[in-house]
Structure formats: C-alpha cells, structure tokens
Write a structure and sequence with these properties.
Transmembrane segments: 6-33, 45-62, 68-90, 102-122, 142-164, 193-215, 227-254, 261-282
Helix content: over 70%
Structural class: mainly alpha
Number of helices: 11
Oligomer: single chain
CATH architecture: Orthogonal Bundle
Strand content: under 5%
Radius of gyration: 19 Å
Largest sheet: 2 strands, antiparallel
Low-confidence stretches: none
Number of domains: 1
Subcellular location: Cell membrane
Protein name: Branched-chain amino acid ABC transporter permease
Membrane topology: Multi-pass membrane protein
Distance between the termini: 50 Å
CATH class: Mainly Alpha
Order of helices and strands: HHHHEEHHHHHHH
Shape: globular
Main location: membrane
Length: 292
C-alpha cells in the first residue's frame, strides 16, 4: 500500500480519537470554565461510563444495538448522578475553593477507582459494538462503527454548543461564570448550577467512554490517559474556552493518529507534552483563552 492510503488511514484513526477526546475535554473545560474547579477525578467518570456500559450490555437481553442504546441513555445519567452527589457532599462543603477542590478530587479519584476494582474486578472486559459494518474503500476496509463514533460525538458537541449559546440554561451558566455574586443577587441558585455543571461534565465523559469502549475494553484503570490528554487539550485550547478545546482536540487527535501509524504512539505523547510546555511559556492562557 502506498503512502497516500496509509496517511488516509492515520487521519481517520486520528479523527476517531479527536472526537472522543473532544467530548471528554469539553466536560473538563466546562467544569473549570463555570466553577473554576480543576476536576482531577474527571478520568474516573470516563472509566465509570465504560464500566457501566459493560454492566448494562451484559445484563440487557436482546441484540447488541438494544443494549448499546440503553447504555447510551443510562450510563451518562448514572455517572452524572454520582458527580452531582460528589458535588453536594464534597465540593460544596469546601465552598469550591480552588486548592481544596484539587485535593478533594484527587481523593475522589482513588475512591471511584477502588470502588470499581472492588465491584467490577481487575480484568479488562470487552463490550460488543451495536452493529458490525465494514466499509470497503479502494485501498482498505474500515469500521463503520468508528465513523458512527465521529458522527455521534459531533452531534453531542453540537447539542452542548446549542445549550451553552441558545438556551436559558446556558445563559444562567455563563452568568454564574462571569460574576457569581451578581448571579446570586438576581436569584440564581448558584449551588444548583454548579451541581448541574459538574454532573454535565461527568456525563459528557461517560458518553465518550460509551462510544469508545466497543473499540477498546472496559478496565478500572482506563481513566488515566483520557484525564492526561484532556488536560493537554484544555491547556492548549485555553481553560474554559469551548472553541479552543475543540480545535486543540482535533490537533492532538489527528497528530496522534498520524504519528502513531508512522512512528510510535509514545512519540505522539512526548510531542503533545512538549507543545503544552511551549504554550505555557509563550501563551499561558492557551490559544483561545482570555488573559487573566
């Protein structure tokens, strides 16, 4: 096979990674943008989504697509409920202090991880794809499900954008983000907004996990890489910037796909980390972030 088809395959694989990474990173960016909380446990909400997908598909009778639809509805809601509970029991009691919440979410990370180990076990377990479709291109065959992942992630991201820019909920979130005391003075229940935002961020990570887990496998330690890459994307794009997060996810995903095919996956991670260092030195607010 010539260089051109290899490059096309690498770009297609990178696009799948970029789509899932964008969903995960948008959740992290949303939490920081509105709440000013760095959620170190974000990767574990991703992991919970994958584990929940395994549980639902394992116990759901019928064809795989039925279990997948049920998972896509139930897993994000369950993970969002866990996140909302964590917000009420932990973050709210700390008054959302930036330093204290970092320590608290580190603790939450280990609690969720060990809970998954106890209930789910240490083994990686497969989740069946909702359908088996292979598209035959002139040079190679490609999974139709992977293209579905890109399309589904795009629709979810579009829905997030519409909520943030065209709905009253988004208006309340942006008002709380800009000026919390003034929002409270106008009767906005800021604590409820924060709980909703934290749940929404976790739910987005769970949706990303549900989409990708048929390609990978569910494992109780799988939250580390999504957390690291999400932080890389959010730092490059700009903390709290939705547009910057999407652009950075596309940049990191496509570069990872190309470099992993032609060189080594480790090199892609090294270059991404180097890019983060350069951004922090020359443009600390990120490519699309506003200056403090």
């Amino acid at each position: 096979m010539d260089f051109g088809p290899f490059l096309l395959l690498a770009l297609m694989e990178g696009l799948v990674m970029a789509a899932v990474l964008a969903l995960t990173a948008v959740g992290l960016s949303l939490v920081f943008g509105v709440m000013r909380v760095v959620n170190v446990a974000h990767g574990e909400f991703f992991m919970l989504g994958a584990v929940a997908a395994w549980f639902v598909t394992s116990w759901m009778p019928g064809p795989p697509w039925l279990g997948f639809v049920a998972t896509l509805l139930l897993a994000p809601l369950a993970v969002a409920a866990v996140a909302a509970l964590a917000d009420r029991l932990v973050l709210k009691r700390l008054n959302y202090d930036p330093e204290a919440t970092i320590v608290a979410t580190i603790g939450l990370l280990y609690i969720l991880q060990q809970a998954a180990l106890s209930l789910y076990g240490p083994d990686a377990r497969p989740v069946p794809a909702p359908f088996e479709l292979r598209l035959q291109l002139p040079w190679f065959g490609y999974s139709g499900y992977k293209l579905f992942v890109v399309a589904a992630a795009g629709l979810v991201l579009l829905a997030v954008w519409l909520i943030m820019t065209r709905s009253r909920i988004g208006l309340v979130m942006r008002a709380t983000q800009i000026d919390r005391p003034t929002a409270q003075a106008f009767g906005i229940d800021v604590d409820r907004v924060y709980a909703g935002v934290f749940a929404m961020g976790a739910g987005l990570a769970a949706i990303a996990a549900v989409l990708i887990v048929p390609i990978q496998q569910a494992h109780y330690l799988m939250g580390g890489d999504p957390l690291l890459l999400s932080f890389i994307v959010v730092i490059i794009g700009g903390l709290g910037s939705l547009r910057g997060t999407l652009v950075a996810a596309l940049l990191i995903g496509l570069s990872d796909g190309v470099i992993s095919v032609f060189y080594a996956p480790t090199l892609a991670k090294i270059l991404a980390t180097l890019f983060v260092a350069l951004v922090l030195v020359f443009r600390p607010q990120g490519l699309f972030g506003a200056k403090a």
